[in-house]
Amino acid sequence: MKSGSNLERVLQSGNFAVTGELGPPKSADPEVIRKKAGILKGHVDAANITDNQTAVVRLSSIAAGAIVMPLAVEPIIQMTCRDRNRIAIQSDLLGAAALGMKNLLCLTGDHQKFGNHPQSKGVFDLDSINLLKMVRDMRDEKKFQCGDEITGKEPRLFVGAAENPFADPFEFRALRLGKKIAAGADFIQTQLVYNVPKFAKWMEMVRELGLHEKCKILAGVGPIKSLGAARYMATKVPGLDVPDEIVARLKGAENVKAEGIKLCIDIIQQVREIKGVAGVHIMAIEWEEAVPEIAEGAGLLPRPQIAASEANMVAAE
Amino acid sequence: MIIAEQKPLKEIREMIAPYKKVLVVGCGTCVTVCLSGGEKEVGVLASTLRLADAVDGNEREFVEQTITRQCEDEFIEQLRGNVEKVDAVLSLGCGVGVQDIAAIFPEIPVLPGLNTTSFGRPSEQGVWVEECAGCGDCILDETGGICPIARCAKNLLNGPCGGSHGGKCEISDDTPCAWALVYERLGRLGKLKTLEEIKPAKNWSTAGHGGPRKMVREDLRK
Hints:
The complex is a heterodimer of chains A (317) and B (222). By secondary structure, chain A is α/β, with parallel strands linked by helices.
């Protein structure tokens, strides 16, 4: 076991994993986090705690992780390269591990231009690939990025990364995933999948490189709340691929929210059939209430309880 | 070349407001080529400022002079005669020029008429783009002659990120994705395989993060 986290145990035991997402508030109010955790509890194996998503200031990911842990929601701490240099990141990771956190998602981060402090200095000391390598080396080599030895307890984190199968150049995307795995990614959460055939094509390239055997790949999925949101995602969000038929399906629906959830369930069932997909990452930011319904509808409940010994046994086989 | 653009007229007028006689100094090198601070721009700016003062009823005199380079002491010395006759200098040089004039004439205020933006080149008529960040550790041999430090919004060494779409950067459709360009160029050179290697974390100490940079050539020192 890399970290022995619940997420790692579920994936190692061969179960189809489910992760969710919890966005901390733009305030110091822990109740917002507790409420969202209450919704996700029992419906996901672990939940990403976003790190100032879209470059908007929010309560810190690690602090929010500490709040959800006693509520039986396992955090996946998100860490971007936008706001911290290698010194700050390593310091925060030691802190997160000391607080008992066991999963980390390494991201480059959305550009600060998109957030509420567009005049801020973007750090980008490392990129996501060098971040992955740094975290892996801290765990497996007991070394800081500079090469100094970690003389005491090293941070043991199950390390994830994101990849966008729909970004350009398409033919380089699986190779870039390979770089992330070579740098240390134990699991991958993809960008939201709405174009399933294109995702399947990407997975084919991933399998050709044998990457699905080196790393657990979770397909990103998410319910669409409104027709406006669908149109916005289809036309305005770089890196998202929302085909016309998805927009048309929501347009034809009497109850768009219900159809959005149904669509998400359909996509989960389709990606589950693709060889090499080890789970789904349900992104329902500011619509956490949809997650239990989606997990239930997609037949993903109840979530498995895997003891560390059991996961080890399956992994050994 | 060094790219610089003229400050808004309002800002320049506020800067010179306390002074009665201003020397507007052009530079014959980079800012002449990027049409921001050459002899011609000095003339246009001085005329505009005279006109604006006339409209507002201000009494202010402008003297114009353009030197070959504002970043070398011997050319700056040529300003001495005019500097002695004015009570402020408005430099249309880059930030180096402003500082060098101020160093040589410490008794007189030297004001910046330009905002210095980058190292770049004209990409088309009327457009100048940044292409070098002066990071002190060039990797253009590895990236097909396209600099991701200057031209990728996130300075990625292992791009392109998930925001690359149709050759454009996620921050703006007007910004080409540097890594899409690298990918295309390395493809042409038959070197795509090199992109599968992980480029290690950058040493930023040469990029100004190690303090102000200085080049010393012992063989040339007296």
